[in-house]
Please model this.
Amino acid sequence: MPQRQRRRRRRGPAQPEGQRKSKLPFPINLIFNVKMFYIVFIIVMIASMAAVGFNAGASNKPEPPPKIDITNTPAVTSQAKVFASPAPVIDATKEYNATLKTNKGDIVIKLATDTPETVNSLAFLAGKNFYDGQAFFYLDHDYWAQAGDPSCNPDLDQICTGTSDAGYKLPVEGSSLKHVKWSVVAPSVQGAGDQVASGQFRILFADDPRLDGTETVFGTVIAGQEVLDQAPNLHLCTALTQQEKDCAKDLSSALIIQDVTVAPSS
Model:
């Protein structure tokens, strides 16, 4: 029987040794594999963008605030109580009394009805505890006693200037009251025209008509005159009295205001 001849597959021409294609190393082989190249490229871009966003978010994250030790933080005092202007707190048609509670007894002042801005300022500041702890930083029985400077507080570690006020000025108000003994006066501000200092006031121990019309007389002491009579003279070394030879160096002997209240007179 004739032998079946096997069909031979035709092969292409044999390539000489040394000319066979060799596989390219990673990652160069990806460059020639277009589909794989794009996939890897997209993955790399997404990873890069995520890394940039994370780093940006981390750099913009605010640092936690430092811990603050409040053990020795001082309490709010009259030193910090300054205001742009006084809010209206009184009824100008009513009569009011102011009571100054001091470390030596109470002083009662009948407030004038024809000086509403000055009286309202006193009532406003009293309601804000502006006067609490303040001293009569000047007292001379031949002239007057003066208080209302927030820097003149013996509980505060500062120098009493004698020139500080509540942060605003008031116009001089005409009054039927005159500069006589026991009058309460808002002192004029030097170089400020027809203005008086807010907060500060003087209580006169003697008549002084020279100042009538130049300051605001807004009250009269009607009780507690003995508290002022018995208080020792005090010429504190302040910006106003530092040139005096025998001025006091501290407020240890001063008459201290503990509280001020303003209420309609009965």
Observations:
- The first helix runs from residue 28 to 32.
- DSSP finds four helices and eleven strands in the chain.
